Amino acid sequence: MKWIKRGFLLLIVLLTALFLLLSLRDRRQELSVYENRRLASHPDFSVRSVWDGSYFRGWDDYFSDHVYRRDDQMRAYQWFQLKVKRAVAANEVVIAGDCLLPYQTYMDFSRFDYDAQSAPAAARLIALQNKVEGQHTQFLFLGVDEQRTALADRYPAHFYSKSDYYEGVNESFRNACRQAGVHTLFVRDYLDPETDPLTWYSAVDHHFNLRGAYQCYRLICEALWAQNGPFPIIEEADLGEYELPGEFYGSYNRKLYDLSPIHERLTVFDQSVLPPYERWDNGERTDAPILDLPEEDEKVQYTVYMGGDKGETVIQTNRPELPSILIVGDSFTNPIEALCVYSFNEVRSLDFRHYHEMSLTEYLSLHHVDAVVVIRDNLNYTYHEANGALE
Amino acid sequence: MVFSSFSFLMVFFPAVCLFYFLVPQRFRTARNLVLLAFSLFFYFWGESKGVLIMLAVILVSYLSALLIGKAGGKKSLRRLGLGLELLACLGVLVYFKYAGWLLGAVNSLLDAGLPIPQVVMPIGISFFTFQSMSYVFDVYKGKVPVQRNLLYVAFYVSLFPQLVAGPIVRYETIAAEIVARKETAEDVYAGLQRFIMGLGKKLLLADVFGREAEAIFAVDASLQGTPTAWLGAIAFTLQIYFDFSGYSDMAIGMGRMFGFHFLENFNYPYIARSVTDFWRRWHISLSSWFRDYVYIPLGGNRRGLPRQILNLLIVWALTGLWHGASWNFVLWGIYYFLLLVLEKLLLGKLLKKLPAIVGQVYTLLAVILGWVLFNCTDPLLLGPYLRELFAFRGSFDYVLATLRQNIPEFVFGLALCTPLPLKLFRLAPDKPWAELLRCLWLLVVLVLSVLTLTGSSFNAFIYFRF
Q1: Would you tell me how many other CB atoms lie within 10 Å of the CB of residue A82?
Q2: Are A49 and A230 in contact (CB under 8 A)?
Q3: H or E stretch including A315?
Q4: Strand boundaries in B206-351, DSSP class E
Q5: pLDDT tens-digit profile of B111-161?
Q6: Other CB atoms closer than 10 Å to residue B386's CB: what's the count?
Q7: Which chain A residues are within 8 Å of B189, Cβ to Cβ?
Q8: Domain residue spans of chain B
Q9: How far is B20 from chain A (nearest CA, A)?
């Protein structure tokens, strides 16, 4: 017996030493692709940092971020969750047959007062609409369903989809906007309910796909046509759409660390259909393309469209006969902006999560546009910060 | 630095062991100095400024005990020594832990507008001050001799395994072992076994239940629905047990590796047959501290029932407050006071006559409700949460989904709340194959714990707050 106990102690000592040595020797990784974040660098020594504790906290972060084969360990952990424990959800992601959805904590919304949230949101929008239209600019609010709502009925049995809440918000917000007189369009009204929502939505990410984006683009163009037309609208068949070769790394399959049973390729359109353009990001002239295509062996992210979220982007196509448009919103706007370059002389976009220079009305007084389109996903209809608090 | 971190597991603990065991066993003082140096560094790592406060407490405790020792029969000098210790330890505790809360309460009650100092509470202050006081109390009562070596007092108070989250080790428990102990391979093996099991309890069970509890308690209580509210309360009940008992296991295990035999801090509290029984099984080092240093000196049950009830009220209000400067902890203490008095006067005798299961169910329900009080630090959240527990509405779906997600955790968790697994463990014959199986099991727990530590971001000890 003694030899077993001593052998076990020796084994633990050797394993610990080996793990430490390998961790120290391991090639330093700066970014965690799985977690979409920069890993901790080793802390800088100073008397102040030691005294305020940040120095040692920094080492805590550093050690946990740079253990031997960290990515492999994280993958092994997820593999254990999915294959050994046979969990349906791992790392807050639910594997729902043919798609991935977010894990949500149950809430009983049967007594929730939706109108208390919707009425102020609609009041903010009508105030904004009045200001925008006061500057002879057309205003439009475009509501899009987020992926989890569109695919709500795919949640496995007992898993909470929160659709009772989202539907409640949707109905109440629409009523409030109608009563207030906000010019709205809700994309769900124009999508065929008999068609599988995965036609328009990603199976591994919370956004819509190119087809979903095209529906939004088309709706916007048709809504602006009467006041700002004529301008060209590209037909879906003319987009020259094709799948990128690398696997699409969406917000959900990314969290499963390459163990997702569902794989997807992102569809983009042929950039050659676009007119020549000049682009400015956050006031700086840039040669960045509309579609930031990755190398063949690279993983594809949603940042393909417009190169990801930016505070301000301006694209000019030097076609003064066409109208100009300002699109306000978060990452849902990116593929729509890309398509709008085809139809508008100037496409501006603002994302108030990142843009802090001035308010929307101040911006419009400096940069006149023919139309302002605010795009919100239904998770954020009543949210009153950043792109939900426009003035 | 928490035990379940790579900086501790990969760097700090191996370094302590290396330096400690490199020193030959006959150089006891040198080994103690290694432990002391690493213990101070351990505290400095997590609480650089707090180390000065801890050292000051150690110095005052050392001097107070010396004064008491030198006083001989002079009562006034002995009392002076004790008074100095109480003043220092309670002063430090009140200032760093309660000043902001007390002044805030005064301001809101009297609209006094007193300035509230922005004080950061040093980690583990409740533990090291209580350990220091227990040493001086025991010297005062003549239970232990005065320790004339300052380094040994510092060693006792700052020993890193139990420094920041207990158990509250009495000086008398380890006084002899500080100067004369023998570390054996058997002890190191047993200690490591205990440490790994503690780590597993923390990372593989407590954190899983913690994630659920945190998610549910974060939801507006009026939107939870009754089944989900109960799930949150039960998940927190399991989290706090595995979190704290896991930490205690790690502390006891590490102590054992260095030749110390700390007393147990938990004894299957969730199978208790009454609340009185529960408190003999939960955080034993704290409840026995209050019993020996507060309840008994106040007269305990020796001065008649009314006085006993008053003593209990004082002890339980203090027990509640010990856990934090917040009204919910006071309420939690009073809640247990009421239950204990009820049992003493009425329920206790009845429970003894009824089948054990009745007492166990009653106790468990009382404890679960107690943890709701404990976890709702905002008193405004408490009412809605309690209301939701008994509102009988909402869906069971989320409960079923959570159970489906975490079947192994719930099975192991519930089993480990009972002595059954340990009994099964001990049933294994004293044969090499059985020992090999045990080692294999420990390796599995260790590997899974390390993977969980890497793969999961939820990792905070509840009792670090205190």
Answers
A1: 20
A2: no
A3: strand A312-316
A4: none
A5: 878 888 888 888 888 899 999 999 999 999 989 999 999 999 999 999 999
A6: 17
A7: 5-6, 8-9
A8: 6-181, 187-465
A9: 14
